[in-house]
Amino acid sequence: MPAPKVDSEVGPLRAVLLHRPGAELKRLTPRNNDQLLFDSIPWVDRAQEEHDAFAQALVGRGVEVMLLADALVTALTDERAHAAAADTAVDRRRVGHELADALGSHLSSLPSAALADVLTAGMTFEELPDAEGASLVRRMHHPHDFVVDPLPNLLFTRDSSVWIGDRVAIASLALPARNRETALLDLIYAYHPRFRAAGRAYGAHSAPVEGGDVLLLAPGVLAIGVGERTTPAGAESLARSVFADGLAHTVLAVPIAQDRATMHLDTVCTMVDRDAVVMYPAVRDTLLAYPLQPDDAKGVLVSGPVPFLDAAAEAMGIERLRVIDTGLDPVTAEREQWDDGNNTLAVAPGVVVAYERNVETNARLEDAGIEVLRISGSELGSGRGGPRCMSCPISRDPV
Ligand SMILES: NC(=[NH2+])NCCC[C@H](N)C(=O)O
């Protein structure tokens, strides 16, 4: 079992945290899907098949796959985790005082596996056992309203935690639909035996930073997208934290458009080799960066903005960063960007997992000498996330 450590985007992947989508996806309806950050209603069985094939593609390359639900159940077997977990699921503002205590004691009485199910798939008022209070809140809510919200975006394990060197940063997720995910990751990293020795970087209660915005361009060099999710304060505070821990010498804060299509930096740019990225052509020449460096007096020294590609190459100590893009046809490029064509997961330098539907982007990757492991994502993609979003590398060999 390799020790947790990740210092690049492309070093041979040894272990990864995935979440096999489950009952939480069955909660999505046309009424709640926007709020829950899905663009359509996925066919769950097919999404699971696609996810199994994704996991299998990784296992076939020698990667150990850890599943979030299993890790959560293991963590919850620790009594302290079990007690804390029930607390994280009770939102007093929503359920009111009368029901909060009853809900808390109901959750505390559940075995670990059943508790993990509620924490991930949520619970409706109807599913709460009758004995648990007849409060006004309970009587006035519709039976299908959620007493505990489902977490369909757990699928995107990239966003909720990030390994930087041998430390793990629990993200601070910006939107209410995803907020509670961090509480689950917090329990896993605190109580799963495998992670007991792991140090923390950053804290769950700091300004918003999401893992999809964090790219480990090279050992000691991070890029952090700032846009719809990660805030300027989030990028600054993660930079302070990695500088203080000696995990990086340069952080590039990269402004990205505040749009659904580009909610994270990894929707427009991911690394496919030591010195190459796949990038959305529309941002290729306009992406900027504010280079940040540690400074004894000020904490964080800011310069720029300068062109991202130049700043990245300089910080990485290479002459230039090769860019593979989606071609010159802007319509194809826009379609494939939306379908996560730029969101690849490297399993080794020059070997990436990508959605098969992005035919043009994949062909251009292959023309540039990159090996592409294709997976289908017709259902998985309905939450707007590709192979990189759906994976949190725990261990990579050095590049
Ligand atoms: N790293 C990523 N690009 N993650 C995609 C996350 C998609 C998810 N539905 C959300 O809106 O949060």
From TrEMBL:
Signal peptide range in chain numbering: none
Which pathway? Amino-acid degradation; L-arginine degradation via ADI pathway; carbamoyl phosphate from L-arginine: step 1/2
Q: Where in the cell is it found?
A: Cytoplasm
Q: Give the enzyme's EC designation.
A: 3.5.3.6
**One GO term of the cellular component aspect?**
cytoplasm
The molecular function terms in GO held by this entry are:
arginine deiminase activity
Q: Which Pfam families match?
A: ADI
Kindly state which reaction or reactions the protein catalyses: L-arginine + H2O = L-citrulline + NH4(+)
Q: Name one GO biological process term.
A: L-arginine deiminase pathway
**What InterPro entries is this protein classified in?**
Arg_deiminase
Statement: the UniProt record of this protein carries the keyword Cytoplasm: yes
Record keywords: Arginine metabolism, Cytoplasm, Hydrolase
Q: Which residues form the active site?
A: C389
- Which PANTHER family does the UniProt record give? ARGININE DEIMINASE
> Hey, which family's this protein in?
Belongs to the arginine deiminase family.
Name of the molecule in the record? Arginine deiminase
Recorded source organism is Actinophytocola xanthii
